[in-house]
Amino acid sequence: MIRTILLATACACMLAAAPADAAEETTQSFETGLIPSPHIFLPEGEVKGTVMLISDAAGWGDYEKAEADRLVAEGAVVIGVDFPSYIQALSRYDVSLNDGCVYMVSDIESLSQQVQRATGNNAYHLPIVAGIGEGGALALAIAAQTPDATIGQTLAVNPAAGIPLAKELCTPASKQVVGERTVYGLSDGVLPDPIITVFTPDANKDGRAHAEALKKAHDEIEIRDSTDDAQTAFADTLDDLVTASGAFGNPLGLPLAVLEATPAFDTMAVIYSGDGGWRDIDKEVGGTLQKEGIPVVGVDSLHYFWKERKPEETAADLSKIIDFYRKQWKVKHVLLVGYSFGADVVPATYQLLKPAEKSAVAQLSLLSLSHEVDYVISVLGWLGQKTEGAGGDPVGDLKNIDPKLVQCIYGKDDDDDVACPALKDSGAEVIELPGDHHFDENYDLLTKTIIDGLKRRLQD
C-alpha cells in the first residue's frame, strides 16, 4: 500500500543544535512494500548516486541522520531504513503469499526507481545497499537473493554473522541457523553486484569469519581492514562508491554490456534489453550468442531510457555503437535484437539509422514484441507517468522495413498484446515458441532460433 513519508519531528533543543545544511525528509508518498516508513531524502540538483542506508541494531538515530545529511549534501538520494522496524515487519509477513519465503529486493528496486523518478534526474543509479553492524549483516543477506543488474554495490562494515529473522529468505544460497540467527551464503556463480566488507578493531569475530567464508566461495568479495572507527570507515568507503556509481566504463559513455568473442559469423549483435535492465533473458541470450562466436553489445534499457529519448537520438547512439564495435571486432554484419520494451523500439530505431549502419543489419530479431513503443521507462507508482504507447505501434514501423530481415518470436502463452501474430501475412518470419512472455526461461531454444535465422539470412 502507499505510505506517506512524514517529516521527522524533534524536540526544540535538537532543532536548535541541528546543522544549517541538515536535510529534510520528503513528504512525497511512495509504495514501500515491506519497508516500514523509510526516511527518504532527496538532494538538490543532479543526483550522483542512491544509497539504501540501513541502521544498526539501535535503530535510526542521530548518527544515521547525520550520515544522511552528509550524503545528501554530496548529491546522493538516501533511503534510510530502521533495522529493528524492518526486521519486525519481515517477521510478521505472511510468507504463504510468496512461495513460503521473504523477498526484499523487489521492494528495494521499486522504491529506488520511484524515488529517483521523483527527483527528475536524467540518469538512474542502481542503489548502494549499505550498513554497519546489523545493518551490514542485512546488506549481505540481501545480496544472497539479489538478481543481476538490480543493486549497484553492497557495503557491510563490521557486519554481524547472519540476521535475526526466522523466516526463510527466497534464495538458493546456503543457510545455517545459529541460535536465533540465520547465516546465509551467496548464490553460485558470479556475484550479482560487487561486495565490500570492512572490519575495524572493534569488529565482531563471527562476522569476520562469515565474510571470510563468503570470500572462499566468491573471491571477488573485498575484505578490507581499517584502523579507523566504524563510522569513519563507512563514510569514507561510501563516498568512493557514490562517486563511482555513475560511470559506465566504455568509450561511448553509454549503459552497455560488452561481451567479447572471436567472431565466427563475421557478425556482431546489439541487444536492447527489456525495461528491467540487462539481466535474465537479455543477459542469457547475450551470453549464449557470445559462446557461439557472436560478440555482443547489450543496451541496458532501464538506464538508457530512464530519461525520455527522441527516436532520432536513439538511432544516432545505435549508429555510434555499430560503427565503433564493427571496427573493433572487424565484422561486416549486425544482428539487431530487442526483447519486450527493447523489441518495441527496434523497428523505428532501425529505420532512422545512417545508411552505412542500416545496410550492415542482417537480421532484426524481435522477442515478445507488443503494439506499443515508448522511449522512457514507466515506473510503478509514479503517478502522472502517461507515456505508454506514446511512440506508436511497432507493427506500423515494420511496414517500411524489408520483411525478409524480420524475425518475430513470441511465447504461445504470452498475453493478448503480443504483436508477432499480426505479422503473419507480411512476409516476416513469425515463430511461436512454447512458454510465456519469458519463453518459460528456455533461453537455449530461443537463442538457437535466433542463430538459425541468422545463418539462413547470411547465406541468402
From TrEMBL:
Cleavable signal peptide: 1-22
The organism's taxonomic lineage, starting at the top: Bacteria, Pseudomonadati, Pseudomonadota, Alphaproteobacteria, Hyphomicrobiales
SUPFAM superfamilies registered for this protein in UniProt: alpha/beta-Hydrolases
Alphabetical keyword list: Signal
Natural source organism: Rhizobium beringeri
Top-level lineage group: Bacteria
InterPro entries: AB_hydrolase_fold, IV_sec_VirJ, VirJ
Membrane-traversing stretches: none
Keyword Signal tagged: yes
Limits of the Bacterial virulence domain: 266-457
Name of the protein described by the UniProt record: Virulence factor family protein
